[in-house]
Amino acid sequence: MANTDVPDLDTFLEGLRKRNPGQEEFAQAVGEVAEDILPFIADNENYQEAEILRRLAEPDRVVSFRVCWEDDDGNIHVERGWRVQNNNAIGPYKGGLRFSESVTESVLKFLAFEQTFKNSLTGLPMGGGKGGSNFNPKGKSDREVMRFCQSFMTELYRHIGPSVDVPAGDIGVGSREIGYLFGQYKRITGRWEGVLTGKALEYGGSRLRTEATGYGVVYFLREMLKNADEELDGKTAVVSGSGNVALYAAQKLIDCGAKVLTLSDSDGFVHDPDGIDAEKLDWVMKLKLERRGRISEYADEFDGAEYHEGNAPWHVDCDIALPCATQNELDDDAAKALLDNDVMAVVEGANMPSTRDAAKRFRKSDILFGPAKAANAGGVAVSGLEMTQNSQRMSWECDKLDDMLTQLMAEIHEKCRSDGESDDGAVDYVRGANIAGFRKVADAMLDFGVM
Ligand code: NDP
């Protein structure tokens, strides 16, 4: 008789930590999901009997490889590259590439694990993966970045393909890097195929992909507010980060009538009590995307704005907080400060931006708390639509894609709501996202048998 006893969370995590020593980010991500899934599988014996959660928390494979590149002065550098293919039960592995000195196997395993649930929530046929390198593109010349990307793809190409694994961008991997990576894949294989997403429009990219994650975060927030009989118009919002997700989330907030008070980068944050309006945001877009400047320059440009070196924006009084920079950027003290200031909604644009304690505090409170795997799924959803356009040799218009994104985010919200709502009508969006994301992948895995 197979064992159908569901382990308690501590026992489950103890085993996970033993198998993955020192991989704290991975343990944190799995722990957050297991907290909701273990009670759920206690009522669904077949998932436990097939050890679905244990299998999901063991990546299908982790490929790691050496990446050598030569800088402009002729010095040779040796970095490490990875691709974590977590699970392809419902479609080809799909997830971004991150280039940052903070990248480790643990960070990529956490991201690939999360991606599996996120991709499932989109309803599109995509499995979960993630990859990257500890290479830091900051301060490197275009040619140095090109040589690194070519070297990285020279190894990665043998592990990916349009029906196998379709990487995209993430921190440190934008359109420049995707161009170099795609060019090298095409050179090695001799094939033009939709093997990467986030491509430029000229060679098969999708309209709206750049904006999709940030816009999707705000569409998800809008659905949460609607469900609570609230609206965005007139609300104040604190946003962290000033990269792809933060800037387009800020743009959509402004479009919807909210007042954006802050933006940040890894050096500090700017606070503009008059609000960062569309014109000022346009200036920031040029600063960050074209000149690769620092957010501190905003305070020199606009009267009334203040720059706070070395700090995050969570003590600024606001109705809505969108952490859109990086993992664990919002700790328990920050969560307390937001709640003390009567924040109404916290929605995660970045992946796992709230520490475990901060997330627990938000879940215990009565605010609306939107977890990353649901709220920031708009980017990968439009990536999925890019794959469809590539395979059909089509290029859809922006309005059509924006309608599809709006609809997809509303559907993701509805899945989270229906699995996360308790009898008193309160919605635990974290539980809803975990259960809805898990169920689809788990059911597919059951159909395949034990492997
Ligand atoms: P970018 O590289 O475009 O921007 C990241 C931003 O975060 C930059 O402003 C960066 O500042 C800041 N940042 C990085 N590290 C820190 C830190 N330790 N403390 C404070 N700020 C920091 O990345 P994206 O906007 O693409 O991604 C942001 C987050 O969203 C990540 O968690 C990513 O995984 C997630 N995400 C992204 C998606 C996408 O489509 N791009 C899709 C889904 C999730 P600096 O310039 O100083 O480094």
**Estimated helix fraction:** 40-55%
Radius of gyration: 21 Å
Number of strands: 12
Q: In the CATH classification, which architecture of one domain applies?
A: 3-Layer(aba) Sandwich
Give the overall average pLDDT. 97
| Main sheet specs | 7 strands, mixed
Q: Looking at CATH, which topology of one domain would you report?
A: Rossmann fold
Q: What class would the helix/strand composition place it in?
A: alpha/beta
Dominant shape: globular
What is the overall number of helices? Answer: 17
Q: State the end-to-end distance.
A: 19 Å
Bound molecules: NADPH dihydro-nicotinamide-adenine-dinucleotide phosphate
What do we call the CATH homologous superfamily of one domain? Answer: NAD(P)-binding Rossmann-like Domain
Assembly form of the protein: single chain
Low-confidence stretches: none
CATH first level of one domain: Alpha Beta
Approximately what portion of the residues adopt beta-strand conformation? 15-25%
Give an overview of the whole structure:
With 451 residues, the chain is α/β, with parallel strands linked by helices. The protein has helices at residues 9-19, 24-42, 45-49, 52-56, 105-122, 142-156, 175-189, 209-227, 244-255, 278-290, 297-301, 332-340, 356-364, 372-375, 378-392, 398-420, 429-448, and strands at 61-70, 76-87, 93-99, 128-133, 165-168, 236-240, 259-265, 268-271, 306-309, 320-323, 345-347, 368-370. Helix content is 48%, strand content 15%. The protein has a 7-stranded mixed beta sheet with strand order 9-8-7-6-10-11-12, with helices on both faces. A 5-stranded mixed beta sheet has the order 1-2-4-3-5. Helix 2 (24-42) runs parallel beside helix 5 and helix 15 crosses helix 16. The radius of gyration is 21 Å and the shape is globular.
